[in-house]
């Protein structure tokens, strides 16, 4: 059963079609990979799906049978669609726990933002209680990514959009985050994964879509997609 349908979605910035008539469906429980050169529209696609900060200009996004395209980001979050951002954002002066609680309340306010969910999510990503109290300013890149992930998880999403979770990480940290993402999928959460790190995409995704200049170049079995000559050309900028 498909949990998410993206139908002819476009996002325009002036004359630029940053996302240009993109359509695909994601099955429940799937890890769906998204790749593409810088500027190909990957993050903008996540923005249009999550409504943060904007929905699509054209087309529609259907989540569990409901049209999201005209809904606000916090409403979409409360329906069970959570995301992380390409850049690790946190309030530096607040503690790890306060950050996660505040962030998660975006998605959970209607149901009552829960300290219990936040605690569970922070523990799930590997933080101990001493870590809960540390100011976010002290965190490493990896820990900031874990905090962002925990914040999203605390919203109890059905589907999770991850924007370059491996960027800026060391090899061992990438291995750790692969394990973490697997465990999230193991909870039955559907995952959309934007990445440049091929090992992560090939290890985790069941299907892989490549965007180029806002359009879908190819969608298929990951091993085949990365060997496709058109994909290689797009990356080399030929
Ligand atoms: P990717 O995540 O694949 O690197 P983006 O989605 O960030 O690509 O960007 C796609 C295109 O849209 C780029 O040309 C980028 O400069 C442009 N773009 C993204 N966000 C904005 C914005 N808020 N205003 C204007 N142009 C934007
Ligand atoms: Mg991006």
TrEMBL record:
Highest classification ranks of the organism: Bacteria, Pseudomonadati, Pseudomonadota, Alphaproteobacteria, Acetobacterales
Keywords for this protein: ATP-binding, Nucleotide-binding, Transport
Entry annotated with the keyword ATP-binding: yes
Biological source species: Acidisoma cellulosilyticum
GO function terms (MF aspect): ATP binding; ATP hydrolysis activity
PROSITE patterns membership: ABC_TRANSPORTER_2
Name this protein carries in UniProt: ATP-binding cassette domain-containing protein
Gene Ontology cellular-component annotations: plasma membrane
Signal peptide segment: none
Matching InterPro entries: AAA+_ATPase, ABC_AA/LPS_Transport, ABC_transporter-like_ATP-bd, BCA_ABC_TP_C, P-loop_NTPase
SUPFAM superfamilies assigned to the protein according to its UniProt record, in alphabetical order: P-loop containing nucleoside triphosphate hydrolases
Residue ranges of domain ABC transporter in the record: 4-238
């Amino acid at each position: 059963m498909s949990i998410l349908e993206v139908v002819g979605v476009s996002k325009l910035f002036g004359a630029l079609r940053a996302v240009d008539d993109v359509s695909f469906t994601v099955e429940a429980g799937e890890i769906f990979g998204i790749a593409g050169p810088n500027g190909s529209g990957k993050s903008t696609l996540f923005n249009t799906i999550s409504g943060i900060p904007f929905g699509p200009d054209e087309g529609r996004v259907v989540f569990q049978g409901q049209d999201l395209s005209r809904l606000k980001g916090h409403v979409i979050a409360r329906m069970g669609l959570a995301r992380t951002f390409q850049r690790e954002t946190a309030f530096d002066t607040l503690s790890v726990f306060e950050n996660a609680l505040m962030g998660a309340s975006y998605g959970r306010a209607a149901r009552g933002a829960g300290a219990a969910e936040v605690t569970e999510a922070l523990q799930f990503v590997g933080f101990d209680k001493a870590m809960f109290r540390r100011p976010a300013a002290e965190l490493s890149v990896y820990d900031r990514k874990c905090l962002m992930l925990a914040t999203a998880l605390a919203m109890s999403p059905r589907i999770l959009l991850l924007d370059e979770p491996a960027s800026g990480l060391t090899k061992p940290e990438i291995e750790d985050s692969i394990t973490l993402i697997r465990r999230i999928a193991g909870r039955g959460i559907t995952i959309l994964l934007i990445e440049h790190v091929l090992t992560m995409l090939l290890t985790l995704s069941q299907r892989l879509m490549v965007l180029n200049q806002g359009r879908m170049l190819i969608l298929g079995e990951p091993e085949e997609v990365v060997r496709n000559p058109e994909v290689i050309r797009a990356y080399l900028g030929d």
